[in-house]
Specification:
Elements lengths: L9 H9 L4 E6 L5 H15 L1 H4 L3 E6 L6 H15 L4 E3 L8 H11 L1
Parallel strand pairs: 1-2, 2-3
Helix pairs in contact: 2-4
Length: 110
């Protein structure tokens, strides 16, 4: 929070993602409220730049190896409702589950 006004990596981070073709939101699946985490990032981006806010985005729920299938389903449903996107990627950075399809789709989009 506060990146749009320079807190933390702030402007340095936001200027970097301005040069990217796609915004990938890597959301911690272990977070209690994944929608809130997504909305915080989106709010920071919107307050910083409307152009950046309008970029294509991909939503990715990470750490699925630590979640039960019911938890994954609940979090995916909540993110779909909040984002309006049908395709939410489910991955595990540790096990590699879901990473190759994500990379393949990113390559195609970019």
């Amino acid at each position: 929070q506060g990146a749009h006004s320079g807190h933390g990596l702030g402007h340095k981070f936001l200027k970097h993602i301005e040069r990217c073709g796609v915004t990938l939101h890597l959301i911690d699946g272990m977070a209690e409220d994944v929608v809130e985490n997504y909305q915080i990032i989106r709010s920071e981006i919107e307050q910083y730049s409307e152009v950046l806010f309008q970029k294509t985005e991909i939503i990715c729920l990470n750490k699925c190896d630590s979640l039960l299938q019911e938890e994954i389903a609940e979090k995916i449903a909540a993110l779909k409702t909040a984002t309006g996107l049908d395709n939410i990627y489910v991955i595990s950075g540790i096990s590699g589950e879901g990473v190759l399809p994500l990379i393949s789709d990113l390559h195609y989009i970019i």
